[in-house]
């Protein structure tokens, strides 16, 4: 269920835009922040709110990398493996982190704590290698520094 | 912590100062004077003429004249008009807009306000890439400050002009940087680019007349209003005036941002400013303007960083994101990384793009593995050629150009892989 608070924030987003539908991306961000992913149930609720078919909601969800249709690990860790980062060792770091965290073939740790993946350029090219930990950037990394940043996660 | 540019100029010289990131501090440094001047002393048409006369080119990649674009906005319409600030910055190798947002949001907002006055826009949508959570918070804080001070909202600066600014976040899709993909995304849809015409000035955000400009483009505007077109034209080259914020990454001693005049030579940026290549290595190739732009070999770095000069070498300024690769770099691996990106990010609407990006990636991967055939090189060139100029948006061209550049200057790397049936560069970066 979308909470009252989330509903209020979505209504505020709608009020700022010329067309209701424009607030769909903001709404998906708001709801996902609360619930972790967009379930069929949430898609149905959002569909009602935006007067569109739930399938259309899910089409939008699947178009964007930052929206998830499935339940997620508690934290997302993405190593940038685009060219500028790769030139400075990002792919080596990524493999080391895979081994360190002992992630499964989907990139998840067994305890549901971390999902490790790689991402395209995050706009931190001069501070490579780097990773995004949820909505935080960790830059100028080496393996030790990356490990320490991951230890802090609950 | 984001580092401020190593070389600064009028755009970034105060970025180290925390005070500058607040409205009060920005005003102490002379901020919002230009907007007040435009809104109280200049007619909208005069502002457009001034910006046209300054020669300011868009800094989002295509380099189109900002003033000319503003002049396309209809003046005889009852429809609401909008501006869009493109803060999607996702072109690999580009990271300048991020600092312009984090440390210079008021400067950009002032530019937006001036552009709004000039074009008669009632609202600006700032579309910021989803991963830029921290810059988005900084930006929202500055927007709130501007509202509190009546620099946004009703009756801006007591002039009766109304302007609203809405910050919206993307959600991780490179194609939403393309202006019509962005518009679709803003409307709550998949970010699939629109067929043009109609252009955004006729049919833009929510179907209304719209002008889209990049973060940096807006950031130059207050300075032009404050100091004049002649001052601006005195910086940079005749055809490409002003400074820009170059981002240097890859194999250099001092990767970072450098605000320098357009027309600064590429070798000066790499060797004098960024300290050259570490470990006594030599440059092998340089991508001069974000990943979509064709690479230049070591022998061609004596080029002024301005489109008129770069075009002669079959490349472009793009976003000014400079990626330096030393002589250990395998250019086939580079091709693998680049083509993977474009395959991954194609929105899939056009066959040439959807299929072409996949084929390019498959073939270069095969060559890297040592399983390439001699005819693969001709096939690569052929596919890339067929992707150009055929599609709804310029993404397919942007995917073809880097492959063409690599084939033009580093064909020998590809041939060596095919001949020896393996990658000859053991020291190059891992794949
Ligand atoms: C595939 C593709 C991606 C783009 N990404 C961006 C981007 O992230 N930021 C940007 O400002 N412009 C981007 N552009 C250029 C925009 O379409 C548009 O030209 C620009 O925002 C206009 O602003 P300007 O004239 O101030 O440069 C992209 C273009 C293409 C074809
Ligand atoms: S060129 Fe590619 S990215 Fe652009 S609209 Fe066509 S399929 Fe989509």
Report the strand count of chain B.
9
Strand order of the largest sheet of chain A: 2-1-3-4
Binned, the helix content of chain B reads 40-55%
Summarize the amount of helix of chain A as a percent range: 40-55%
**Regions with little confidence, pLDDT below 50 for 5+ residues of chain B:** none
Describe the protein.
The complex is a heterodimer of chains A (154) and B (431). Chain A folds into two domains: 4-63, Arc Repressor Mutant, subunit A (Orthogonal Bundle); 75-151, Glutaredoxin (3-Layer(aba) Sandwich), CATH 3.40.30. The relative contact order of chain A is 0.12. Chain A has a four-stranded mixed β-sheet with strand order 2-1-3-4, covered by helices on one side. Chain A has helices at 4-15, 24-35, 40-50, 54-63, 83-86, 90-101, 143-151; strands spanning 75-80, 114-119, 131-133, 136-138. In chain A, helix 1 packs antiparallel against helix 2 (24-35) and helix 3 (40-50) packs across helix 4. The radius of gyration of chain A is 18 Å and the shape is elongated. Chain A has 154 residues and is of the alpha+beta class. In chain B, the strands form two sheets. A five-stranded mixed β-sheet of chain B has the order 6-5-9-7-8, sandwiched between helices. Chain B is globular, with a radius of gyration of 22 Å. Chain B has helices at residues 23-28, 33-41, 44-54, 66-71, 96-102, 105-119, 133-148, 179-186, 215-227, 229-233, 266-273, 307-312, 331-345, 351-369, 376-387, 395-420, and strands at residues 82-87, 123-128, 164-169, 210-214, 243-250, 256-261, 283-287, 296-297, 321-326. Chain B is 42% helix and 12% strand. In chain B, strand 5 (243-250) and strand 6 form a beta hairpin. The model of chain B has no long low-confidence stretch (mean pLDDT 97). By secondary structure, chain B is an alpha/beta fold. Chain B folds into three domains: 18-233, NADH-ubiquinone oxidoreductase 51kDa subunit (Rossmann fold); 243-326, Ubiquitin-like (UB roll) (Roll); 331-420, NADH-ubiquinone oxidoreductase 51kDa subunit, iron-sulphur binding domain (de novo design (two linked rop proteins)). Chain B has 16 helices and nine strands. Classes of the chains: A alpha+beta (154), B alpha/beta (431). Chains A and B meet through helix 2, helix 4, helix 5 and helix 6 of A and strand 3, strand 5, strand 9 and helix 13 of B. Iron/sulfur cluster (SF4) is lined by residues 175, 193, 346-350, 353-354, 391-393, 395-396 of chain B.
